[in-house]
Amino acid sequence: MLIEQLKKIVGPKGWSTDSIDLEPKLTDWRGTVSGTTPIVVSPATTEEVAAIVRACAESKVGLVPQGGNTGMCAGAIPDKSGTQILLCLARMNTIRDIDAINYSMEVEAGCILQDVQDAASDVDRLFALSLGAEGSCQIGGNLSTNAGGVNVVRYGTARAQVLGLEAVLADGTIVSSLRSLRKDTAGYDLKQLFIGSEGTLGIITAATLKLFPLPGAKTTVMIALQSSGQAVRLLSYLRSKIGDRIEAFELVSSFVFGLIKKHLPDSKQPFDDDSPWYVLADFAGIAEEDLQQALMAAMEAELVIDVVIAKNAAEAAGMWHLRHSISESERAEGEALKHDISVPISRFEEFLTRGDSLLAERFPEGQLIAFGHVGDGNLHYNVALPAGFKRHQEVTEAIYTLLLEVGGSISAEHGIGMVKRQDLPKYRNSGEIRLMRTLKKSLDPDNILNPGKVI
Ligand code: FAD
Ligand code: MLT
Ligand code: ZN
After folding, report:
1. Of the ligands numbered here, which is closest to the C-alpha atom of 323?
2. Does the beta carbon of 78 lie inside 6 Å of ligand 1?
């Protein structure tokens, strides 16, 4: 009955029960979690989304929103019960409006991130969110996870790129706050409820996004370092010399570089010799002589070992290709234990030093796979473990305990989804958890929206 109702709402182009269509949507990008569904529905309008939600609410059947299915915490995968409906936003991919004078654009949730960036750049504006999956992830998924990526150091996370939002509540009500205002204190800022809540409080159907001026000519630089702590000190030093013109500041360990080389054997390597750590950075709107001078001074201050400045756009793209191949390279090696952590930048070095000792003393068989967005204090502190190793939970708990001690978070940018759900109550205080549960219960009393995720 419900299935027939859903088919009618979306019409013949808007649903599938064919396993060829369903299969890629039922396992997460990492390939670790799979689920089942009786049907995937792909609405073309917000009204269709509302009708789908109403139908599911009447039948008290769970609904799992899915964007590009590039998420790292299996938030977009239905459970194994075979009852949850999969809601795919891909057909809602219209860029509704671009207002270059207001530096804003209105887009539907299913727009691919790269298409949003390109549309902004066509009118000489920047949409600042950028991440390795930008060719396939969707803006609805980016906002639902409050994604970070490589430009947060200058522009902030996905949340900071949103002026207005349209969402569908668990009873099918459409809440439209698609205003394009920089200032608006008229009541609660409702859009914040849906950003970062991973589809558990509402379905995002459209957003008004903030645009920036294009940053000017970019210079991409690869920097070799002796220690990860040097990266933090270098960032602080460069900030004091050149201000906020640092667009990206990414850290990659030598071991991770080894994985990339193995995965991309023909890739051009920036340095002949190995160093323990590397930073890949983009600078914009700064004369190359001034940048060179700042980097030379950093070298004299013994903050860096060596520097390679990309000579042209192709070289810069080559360096970024290496960075964006990390997830693929890591996946190709087999499943590492992933920890998407953040710490205050001032305690980054302490976390890494204590983390090294922790792994060496308690889990010497673990191999650290560390990379990430050091400019935001966000590291992918992953640990590869040998076959047969059984104490994965112990490794994660030890790392999370250390994180708490240094004021960190167990999820910087990937969210909680299904895979970290059991950890959340242990690492957020009871007042926070109670408020999250109160919000969920009052907005979705029958637990229709993305059940089994986050809370
Ligand atoms: P999905 O994976 O489809 O969904 C993610 C969550 O959002 C799920 O809970 C889903 O139910 C919910 N959701 C999706 N659409 C909606 C909607 N319209 N309304 C309500 N809920 C919805 N992440 C980063 O933060 N930074 C990175 O640097 C980064 N790099 C990546 C690199 C690679 C190669 C890959 C594969 C992933 C990377 N990710 C990164 C993770 C991922 O791309 C992001 O989390 C992205 O924002 C997810 O978007 P998506 O459209 O694929 O969402
Ligand atoms: C990244 O920074 O590359 C991503 O967040 C993806 C990942 O952690 O694999
Ligand atoms: Zn990341």
Report:
1. 2
2. no
